[in-house]
Design goal:
single chain; mainly beta; 22-stranded antiparallel beta barrel; five-stranded mixed sheet; 6 helices; disordered N terminus
């Protein structure tokens, strides 16, 4: 009966859990690299002391062996004890004075050394905990790649204590946060729409809640993320600047686990576990309660006002759900569902209708969100090759309705003027793809695959109706639905040429057919690495990227007025060429690392609104308001980090330039990009005081954002010398001024108890009110002045997470 209840609660939603059998072929590989392969195949985490694996290399050749058997083989005669505890594989030094011996089997661990200066009686609670999926930078050929685990995301302090994937990435060099406190992201001088966000390999178009205050990714549902900004794997294309693939948790086959979180602005609940012997599930829910919190404030505001009645309601929610069925050790079938939705209602109205006079009722309704449903098959063809087949449907939707009623009452006669404007924007994608991973030898890893996407775009359809008395009119703009076909294929080889040289070469081919026109994209990728010794690496990379859809934004917030539109008509696909060079260092014990990465990027055919686009007639095609141009970005990113120990973190500094040139904007003159932040400093510290208490601090500072300041205005001639406040700005240069230097400190503290943990956080701890905009105002003597707009003060928050 319990099983039937669980199945009915899942509503036939399915997902994947990774098999507990392991296949590994390793020849003299570092133990940490082998651990990462086990983590990827089993979903387990490794917990061990940072000096436990110093100098340890592994030879291992196993095929579809149980995890426990593989661990027994690998650690035989190594001087290391292991134990599986839930999702963790705990390693510690065996309490013996004997030196590790070499085993005479196919899984021997040669030259394994253990630091015997550590006291063997030390308790596990005092040992540094390490669980990293990310390979050390000196061991790969990648530039600008980052893997974040759920723990790292949760340990980054943010507003309201809401753990956020994108805000955690803001602390990395080369990434701009956009507006204060929001979850937008500008990477290496690119626009916000030039980043591809994926959820388990499926693209998402809308990734923000509440104008970007929160991201659409629920941290409780995340296992880890892969992020690329310079060396782009050949698998990815479709955006110019970066690629973010969020991988969600799979259900545990060993028992039911979960948590419930209660915070000031939202709550969440997640649970996972087995359904029978071959199936497991995972569900994560999150919902805000801004609408509940606003009820008493609205009641107070409306009771104190004699004229207007204020209308306001906002709420967001998202759900992630997965289930898997494992046919065998080589095959699992999976399916998953994600749904995220925002609703915002605003407006005002007169409190009552007069006997004679005017009655006004003005309402605005907004909604936006994503729906993703996917299913697929993970299949191990043989010990050297595995495949993933995916079929998915994704829908992005947004819309707004403006409803205005003006009622004139005169001696019992009523005349209504009623206007309704509805705007709709949506995208429907059907996605089919196959990805293969082949290891033909110990020094090569070849990835290849391809996919097809059927797009349906409705860029921005507006319906307008207007009624005066008994007269009614209705108009609809000339926007129609576009159908597009997109196909792609890729191949890349990660080649370990020797102990000192490594290269990754790949090619991504794509085509995009829309409105009878086919566009082609060729995107070569190359990155090479040279290691003069074990602790240093020098890398170089080149990547071309293409983009066939783009987002039109009238503000720098994430709003439903933003429109995703395809490349049509006279516009060409956007593309970018990027060259990068990097130098990397790590300490002998791998506790410290440092890097310097330089880049130069050229962007072509980027799209934006033309000057005075709002003067276009409403019946014109939506793309009549647009123009295309080019941009450049260059800079250098520095980073020093401490990876292990009770205190971890990093210091990052970026020096960057970014500009734009449009023939139909700014009189064709080059101007700085909005987020042309010359200097950016990010400092992140995590202090594990004990197993129960953890402190986190994040400080960020950067040169102010650029903006256009209208220094002169003229009064409408209709008013003559009688000034009424109506004015029009004189045209000036785009982004001609810069805001003051921005800086902020965020703090958080996690305190654990037997049932869960408390999280205390402070946003903008020293309450520095940063300037986010400049507005034009007038003094009492009617003298024009410019005023700084400051938005967010110190914001404390508290939440409790109950774990079971």
């Amino acid at each position: 009966m319990k099983r039937l209840v669980l199945i009915s609660l899942m509503m036939c939603i399915c997902t994947v859990v990774m098999a507990q059998n392991v296949t590994i072929r390793a020849v003299n590989q570092p133990a940490a690299l082998v651990f990462r392969s086990i983590v990827e195949q089993t979903g387990k985490n490794f917990v061990y002391s940072s000096d436990l694996l110093t100098g340890m290399y592994v030879n291992l050749n196993v095929k579809n062996k149980p995890l426990r058997q593989v661990l027994s083989i690998m650690f035989k005669d190594s001087g290391i004890e292991w134990k599986i505890n839930g999702k963790n594989i705990i390693l510690k030094k065996r309490q013996t004075s004997e030196r590790p011996r070499r085993a005479d089997n196919t899984a021997k661990i040669p030259d394994a050394t253990i630091n015997t200066t550590r006291p063997t009686t030390r308790m596990l609670e005092e040992v540094v905990v390490v669980s990293r999926l990310e390979a050390p930078a000196v061991e790969t050929s990648e530039i600008g790649a980052k893997k974040l685990t759920a723990k790292e995301i949760i340990n980054t302090p943010v507003m309201f204590g809401e753990s956020d994937v994108i805000k955690a990435l803001h602390m990395q060099p080369g990434i701009s946060e956009g507006q204060e406190g929001l979850a937008g992201m500008n990477v290496h001088g690119g626009n916000a729409d030039e980043n591809l966000y994926m959820l388990d390999n499926v693209p998402l178009y809308q990734v923000n809640h509440f104008a970007g205050l929160f991201s659409a990714f629920n941290a409780e549902a995340i296992r880890y993320i892969d992020f690329f900004k310079s060396s782009i794997p050949a698998k990815y294309d479709g955006r110019l600047s970066s690629y973010l693939d969020v991988r969600t948790k799979s259900g545990s086959p060993e028992g039911h686990h979960g948590s419930a979180k209660l915070g000031l602005t939202s709550g969440s609940f997640n649970i996972d576990g087995p359904i029978g012997r071959r199936t497991s599930y995972s569900v994560a829910l999150r919902r805000s309660w801004f609408d509940v919190l606003s009820i008493p404030m609205l009641a107070i505001a409306n009771s104190s006002s004699d004229d207007d009645k204020i209308r306001f309601r906002y709420a967001f929610m998202d759900i992630n759900a997965k289930v898997t069925y494992r046919f065998s050790n080589n095959a699992t079938v999976f399916a998953s569902v994600y749904f995220g939705n925002d609703v915002l209602k605003t407006g005002s109205s007169d409190k009552e209708q007069p006997q004679n006079g005017w009655y006004d009722d003005d309402k605005d309704d907004f909604y936006w969100g994503n729906l993703v449903a996917q299913t697929g098959l993970n299949y191990r063809i043989n010990p050297e090759m595995s495949a993933e087949f995916t079929a998915a449907y994704t829908r992005y939707f947004s819309g707004m309705t403006h409803d205005w009623l003006l009622r004139e009452i005169n001696d019992g006669n009523t005349v209504d003027s009623h206007s309704i404007t509805k705007t709709r924007n949506n995208i429907n994608d059907w996605i089919f793809r196959a990805d293969f991973d082949w290891r033909p030898g110990e020094n090569n890893r070849i990835r290849f695959g391809g996919g097809y996407t059927l797009h349906s775009f409705l860029p921005a359809r507006a319906d307008r109706s207007y009624t005066v008395g008994t007269t009614k009119t209705f108009t609809r703009d000339s926007t129609w639905t576009y159908t597009a076909n997109e196909a792609n294929a890729y191949i890349e080889d990660d080649w370990r040429i020797s102990d000192r040289f490594r290269a990754n070469a790949g090619l991504h081919l794509s085509l995009f057919n829309i409105d009878g026109k086919t566009n082609y994209g060729i995107a070569p990728r190359l990155s090479v690495s040279y290691r003069p010794d074990e602790n240093w690496a020098v890398k170089a990379a080149y990547a071309r990227t293409n983009q066939y859809v783009h987002q039109l934004s009238q503000t720098y917030l994430s709003l439903p007025t933003d429109q995703w539109v395809p490349i049509t008509g006279k516009f060409k696909p956007q593309n970018a060429d990027k060259a990068s060079l990097g130098v990397y260092w790590q300490s002998d014990n791998r506790m410290f690392a440092a890097s310097a990465e330089g880049y130069y990027k050229i962007m072509r055919n980027i799209v934006d609104y033309r000057d005075e686009y709002y003067l276009q007639p409403p019946t014109e095609m939506w793309n009549a308001q647009l123009c295309s141009g080019k941009g450049t970005a260059k800079g250098i990113d520095f980073k020093i980090e401490k990876l292990y120990g009770k205190i971890t973190g990093h210091i990052a500094y970026s020096l960057a330039w970014s500009d734009r040139t449009f023939p139909d904007k700014n009189d064709g003159l080059t101007f700085p990009a909005r987020f042309d932040n010359r200097h950016t400093v990010n400092i992140l510290l995590n202090w594990n005081i004990s197993q129960k208490v953890n402190l986190n601090a994040a400080w960020t500072g950067h040169s102010g954002n650029r903006f256009t300041l209208m220094t002169q205005v003229w009064n409408s001639p209709d008013f003559g010398n009688s000034y009424t406040g109506d004015e029009s700005p004189l045209k000036t240069r785009i982004n001609n001024y810069q805001l003051p230097f921005y800086h902020r400190l965020d703090l958080s503290c996690t305190v654990r108890n037997r049932r869960g943990y408390w999280t205390f956080s402070v946003f903008n701890a020293y309450c520095h009110m940063n300037t986010v905009a400049i507005r034009r105002a007038y003094t009492n003597s009617n003298r024009p002045v410019f005023q700084k707009v400051k938005l967010l003060p110190i914001i404390p928050s508290i939440s409790y997470t109950w774990q079971f």
